[in-house]
Amino acid sequence: MIVSKPTVSGRFLAGSGGPLATVVWEPPKDIAPRFAVLYLPPFGDEMNRSRRMAALQARALAAIGGTVALLDPRGTGESGGDHGAATWGGWHADVALAWAWLAEQSNVPCVLWGLRLGALLAADVVATARAAPAAMVLWQPIASGRAFFNQFLRLATVQERVGGAEGGADAKALRLKLAAGNPIEVAGYELNPALVADVEAKDLVALDGSRCQVVWREVSAVAAPTISPASARIASRWQEHGAELDIAAVSGPSFWATQEISEAPLLVAATTSAIAARFVNHAGGKP
User: Fold this and answer.
1) Sorting pLDDT into bands at 50, 70 and 90, what band is 272?
2) How far is the C-alpha of 280 from the C-alpha of 202, rounded, in Å?
3) How do beta strands 189-191 and 110-115 pair?
4) What is the DSSP string of 87-103?
5) Which residues contact 216 (CB under 8 A, 6 or more apart)?
6) Any idea which fold 7-144+208-285 has?
7) What gap in Å lies between CA 247 and CA 249, rounded to an integer?
């Protein structure tokens, strides 16, 4: 018996900041569409290191009836625009456009899925009503935009010094440039001060997590993985404000940060199971 497989294709959407690249996974021909998913990637090199995992998850979801669009926001990946001109508001607009396109293509419940900074972007988009998903999937979400960029600047400048880069600025000097409204270049990425300022104003705990069902997954290298204390505090706060939250940790590597491309198969399995429980194992694909 011949079993059909998910199909994958590349498409460009007409974004306001230039063409938006998407990779779209679609269900096998013999499986009815059950749901659709829009994926928002992490920031900088984390995006490149995570492409393998994003593809593995997209393929797994397509195999159970999902149409999955992997988005490169403006200034990133294969999309148009300069990285140094990217802003948080511009990325919001890109998500809203891609979301409207996906919803128009699909007559099924739609899910918003983000990894790391992409998860913070997803939560912010939902909290500000730029999208109204049936569910939101958060992979290892950034809790604090300020803490994220503090770490990014610190690690990037250390790596430049270790690599023998000459004339590299330290994190404090870069902060001074940003405060003066000047763009900076770190680890090969030009950063718009407006982007950094807007991201640093975001804290996950302050966002409204009650607008849709939330599937929150993290990975840990320990034998008995548990949610981080910071994530547990945010989850508790969201639940106090009415969020319907499914949060859990699985064993696996920090694939977005490893030097070699790595995989976390238990994360893919746990996410696929959670989505299937909501959109596949119910009559009509309804959650």
Assistant:
1) very high
2) 34
3) unpaired
4) -HHHHHHHHHHHHHHHH
5) 137, 138, 141, 231, 235, 245, 246, 247, 248
6) Rossmann fold (3.40.50)
7) 7
